[in-house]
Amino acid sequence: MGPNAAAAKQAEQLRIDGNTYFKKDRFGAAIDAYTEAITLCPNVPVYWTNRALCHLKRNDWERVEEDCRKAIQLDSNLVKAHYMLGLALLKRQEHAKGIRELQKALDLGRGADPKGYMVEEIWQELAKAKYLEWECSSTKRSWELQSLKEACESALKERHFLDSSQMEGFVDDATTTHLEQLEALGKIFNKAAEDDTPAEIPDFLCCKITLDIFHDPVITPSGHTYERAVILEHLKKVGKFDPFTRQPLQPSQLVPNLAIKEAVQAFLDKHGWAYKVD
């Protein structure tokens, strides 16, 4: 066995040891094992992502980011690396960058294993991230709008004071005009704030079974749309029929509902995922 092969074998054993430590919540020992494996074979991505996961468990987000970036350099298609990097960036309040990484992880996860546990987990974190991004930007815009509104109101009051002092005998007319201007100003700013008001999710964007917004909508021959995972579970455990029409239905008859999927994305893009996710 050559030196390279011996190093690779030793590194793999260290990975196995690290996994054992990790399962026992001995994250420090696991980090040491993965670090030794990396020293022996620095070009194996899984050693970096395994160590990053240990850092994540210890809330050491700076090291999570470092290890994930190294893993992505070695293999840009690593779902876990993009996922953990996204979480690390969110911890640094870099919402846009974090969301991009989570979206990349979601796209890769759907391509590799559409029904895998990681897809749902990533989707939930992406939902939270988009809501936080909306919340931060909304708060900032609300503060800016309120400051501008107060400045405009102050300017109107000052103008009203000057007009009143110069229009003796016409004070009532000046007051009426001032009140009308304040009312108009209020309507303008209320309209400007509408886009930051969380919207109710339209019924047609929600699965009839889960009542939650669609993740992966599919349509049946009868024209009903369901969440893919939910309808497949129904067909498997309840029976091969449409839950609402009771017509016979096979998994092969389910077709992605691209129109609803695009509508969901448009709604989320506009409203910034303006609803809470548990």
UniProtKB/TrEMBL annotation:
Keywords: Repeat, TPR repeat, Transferase, Ubl conjugation pathway. TPR repeats lie at residues 11-44. Coiled coil: none annotated. One of its GO terms (cellular component) is cytoplasm. Pathway: Protein modification; protein ubiquitination. It is an enzyme of class 2 (transferase). Its EC number is 2.3.2.27. It catalyses: S-ubiquitinyl-[E2 ubiquitin-conjugating enzyme]-L-cysteine + [acceptor protein]-L-lysine = [E2 ubiquitin-conjugating enzyme]-L-cysteine + N(6)-ubiquitinyl-[acceptor protein]-L-lysine. GO terms for biological process: cellular response to misfolded protein; positive regulation of proteolysis; proteasome-mediated ubiquitin-dependent protein catabolic process; protein polyubiquitination; protein quality control for misfolded or incompletely synthesized proteins. The keyword Membrane does not apply. Pfam families: TPR_1, TPR_8, U-box. Residues 200-274 form the U-box domain. GO terms for molecular function: protein-folding chaperone binding; ubiquitin protein ligase activity. Gene3D superfamilies: Tetratricopeptide repeat domain, Zinc/RING finger domain, C3HC4 (zinc finger). PANTHER family: E3 UBIQUITIN-PROTEIN LIGASE CHIP. This is E3 ubiquitin-protein ligase CHIP.
